[in-house]
Design brief:
The longest helix is centred in the middle third of the chain and has 12 residues, at 117-128. Helices cover 18% and strands 35% of the residues. Strands 9, 10, 11, 12, 13, 14, 15, 16, 17, 18 and 19 form an 11-stranded mixed β-sheet that branches. Strands 2-7-4-5 form a 4-stranded antiparallel β-sheet, with no helix packed on it. A two-stranded antiparallel ribbon has the order 1-8. The chain is α+β, with helices and mostly antiparallel strands. The chain has 2 domains: 11-72, RNA-binding S4 domain (Structural Genomics Hypothetical 15.5 Kd Protein In mrcA-pckA Intergenic Region, Chain A, Roll); 81-297, Pseudouridine synthase. It has 7 helices and 19 strands.
Length: 303
């Protein structure tokens, strides 16, 4: 059953008076000091800011004393309400979401009719304008929660994909694994290939697949589990899952790669950080989500 709803938002506005000469971005930063630089730019790109009654999207627009700045804090006519998808950032070029575990990012050949993050976002964008389109940039596994990015045009998609390793500055996952690795931190390097049964296998010769490089560091541990900060140097299918199995510490709940049934009802893998060069503004923007509460609960000492 589809649970997403696009609800009209009651418009909410804030009007401020300028007291001294200042650029628009600096003015917004002073009056909205809880918002990040990226969030303020998003307000401008979404035409939420008016100066003296006219929409202004230029961040360095000069303001003069007595100017009136009005901010529409609703961010648009519609909002996405879905139990498994949360919009983290949106502008005219791209959209970043946090998806829940259990939801496919995009449809597969054998699951064309299944609800996906892509189909949910496509419906959301077309509700705002039927001409809007969505393009796949990268993927995360169905079982993995966390951050994923989509493009709003073919041009932006190609800009991001053609220089993926240069554009992406940081990809951090949180993995909870069975047992505790011998090394506090390490780098795993192997070559991954996919079998006809759609399972990824690891080897150590170049002719055995595509190179995969995973860095990890232990964040928390107890007698049963370890929480790892995992950074990807490459982004192969099931890379973290295979590499954790390879060192003898599969991700909790990952039956496909040798784990026992999950103590938290899901696989212990979350895409926590995504940082990249914006394909239009060329600014490095970074997004971070909280570690799932179920992960942290495994490391709470019981009296």
């Amino acid at each position: 059953m589809r649970t997403n709803r696009l609800a009209p938002k009651k418009e909410k506005q804030t009007t401020l008076r300028v007291k001294e000469p200042i650029e628009l971005m600096a003015f917004l930063a002073i009056h909205f000091n809880g918002k990040s630089h990226t969030a303020l730019k998003s307000m401008l790109s979404h035409k939420q800011v008016c100066v003296n009654g006219k929409v202004v999207s230029q961040f360095n627009h000069p303001l003069q004393p007595s100017d009136s700045v009005t901010i529409n804090t609703t961010g648009g006519k519609y909002e996405l309400k879905h139990a498994k998808v949360k919009i983290v950032f949106e502008d005219d070029a791209l959209i970043v979401i946090e998806k829940s575990e259990g939801l496919l990012a995009v449809a597969t050949d054998d699951r064309q009719d299944e609800l996906t993050a892509f189909s949910i976002l496509s419906a959301y964008l077309k509700k705002k304008d039927p001409r809007n389109r969505l393009f796949i940039v990268h993927r995360i596994d169905r079982e993995t929660s966390g951050l994923i990015m989509f493009a709003k045009s073919k041009e932006v998609q190609l800009r991001l994909q053609d220089n993926w390793h240069e554009n992406v500055k940081e990809r951090v996952y949180i993995a909870v694994v069975e047992g505790v690795p011998d090394k506090e931190e390490d780098t795993i390097v192997s070559y991954l290939r996919e079998s006809k049964a759609f399972k990824i296998h690891s080897g150590y010769r170049e002719d055995e697949g595509k190179e995969a490089i995973t860095h990890y560091r232990i964040m928390r541990k107890n007698d049963a589990y370890a929480m790892l900060k995992v950074e990807l140097e490459t982004g192969r299918k099931n890379q973290i899952r295979v590499h954790m199995q390879e060192i003898g510490h599969p991700i909790i709940g990952d039956k496909k790669y040798g784990a026992a049934p999950s103590p938290i009802g899901r696989i212990g893998l979350h895409a926590r950080v995504l940082a990249f060069v914006h394909p239009v503004t060329h600014e490095v923007i970074r997004f971070e989500t909280p570690i799932p509460k179920k992960f942290n609960a495994l490391f709470v000492e019981k009296n």
